[in-house]
Each structure stands twice: as C-alpha cells, then as structure tokens.
C-alpha cells in the first residue's frame, strides 16, 4: 500500500504543473466569460461555456498521453518507469487524471452556471436543471472521458511497443489500431447483435418542466450499454498494462 501511495505522489508531482496551468487558464477564461456576459448579454458566452464542459470528454485522453510521454522523455528507447507493474502505473495515472478532470469540470460548472444566470436571468429554472441533470451529465462526461482516454492510452502504448520490431512506420500501426474504436465500433453499433447485447434496461429523463416538446428528442440511456462498455474498458486497461510489462518495459 505504501509503495502504491508513493507511486500516486510521484504521478501528482510529475503532472502538477500541467494540472495547475490548466486550472489557471480555465479560471481566466471563466472570468472573461462572466465579464462579457455582464457587458453584452448576447448568449454566445453561455454557448462557449457549455462547449467547454463538453470538451472535458477529451481531458483524460490528453492528460494520459502527456503523462505517458513524460515517462520516456529524452530517451531514444522506452525506459521502465519503476519497479511497479504496468497496471499500477496506469491505475495511478487514471486516479490522478480523473481527480484533475473532476476539478476542472467543477470549475467549468461554476462559471457556466454563473454565466447562465446572467444571460437567462432565471435562477430558479437554471438551479432546477442543474440539480436534476448535473449528476447524470457529469457521469456521462466522465464515462466517455475514461473510454476515450483508455483507447488513446492503448494506441499510444502499442505504438511505443512496436518500436522493438518496427523501426519506421509506427504511426501506421497506431492508425490501424485507431480503426478498431472508430470504424470497427461503428459497424458493431449498427448491427443486430449490438442491439441484442446492449439495448436493454432503458432510462428515460423527463424534460417537460423545461419545455413540453423536448421529450420528443430524448435519447434513452441503456443499462446494458453501460455494462458492455465497462467490460470493454476493463479489457483495454488489462491489455495496456500487460503490454507495458511484457513489451514496452522490456524494450
């Protein structure tokens, strides 16, 4: 346990400058958005703020890629990050990355709420929507961020591992692997097998208190879909850790 805690502290100190600067930039952008909302009331500030929240879907992937690349910075060959296993290494990066994501997302929520109150001038409605849907939006963003982040990590590790037997053209390996979560998953999602596997246990949300016509556009969330992608992420994590131990660290 002590060694894992040391690995967590190591990961934080390795990435703290990146984390702090991202938070500082977010605060600066949020303050600017609030100022523009007070001055112009055009609504574009709210659109940009909502876009900032959605952009957190890519937060973890960028964090993990930056953190992993720093493990082998200034080396022509990948070096072992330490005596810990690949799963422990990735686990600590995921923990610190997810905590950083939550911190950044929390700040984005605060400024978005502030801007929405200024632009829409309807505090009770904004508060009601935030309370009812804030948790689910956060959960969805974190789930998607974790899914994309794990795929990005696996692709990066495969490219690094391929250097042991391919001296040039590693980017082609990465591109071919990228086809699995994009083109390959697109084919699977349009198949009858996918519908039978995951489209069960729908959860619907009631939008009537916001607008009576919004219920026509609601998309259900399926419990089966959540289980399916959770198992897939476990598999991706296991494969990435195994590659770190058996291919990358032995290069």
Q: How does this model look, in words?
A:
The protein contains 9 helices and 2 strands; from the N terminus they run ααααααααββα. It has 251 residues and is mostly helical. It has one domain (2-248). Strands 1-2 form a two-stranded antiparallel sheet. The radius of gyration is 21 Å and the shape is globular. The model is unreliable at 74-82 (pLDDT under 50).
Please describe the structure with a list of short key phrases separated by commas or semicolons.
251 residues; mainly alpha; two-stranded antiparallel sheet; 76% helix
Quick structural summary:
By secondary structure, the protein is an all-alpha fold. The protein is built from nine helices and two strands; from the N terminus they run H-H-H-H-H-H-H-H-E-E-H.
- Unreliable residue runs: 74-82
What is the approximate shape? Answer: globular
Q: How far apart are the termini? A: 28 Å
Strand order of the largest sheet: 1-2
| Count, helices | 9
SSE blueprint:
Layout: H1 2-40, H2 44-55, H3 59-71, H4 86-120, H5 123-162, H6 170-178, H7 180-189, H8 192-198, E1 202-203, E2 221-222, H9 223-248
Antiparallel strand pairs: 1-2
Helix pairs in contact: 1-2, 1-4, 2-4, 3-4, 3-5, 4-5, 4-9, 5-6, 5-9
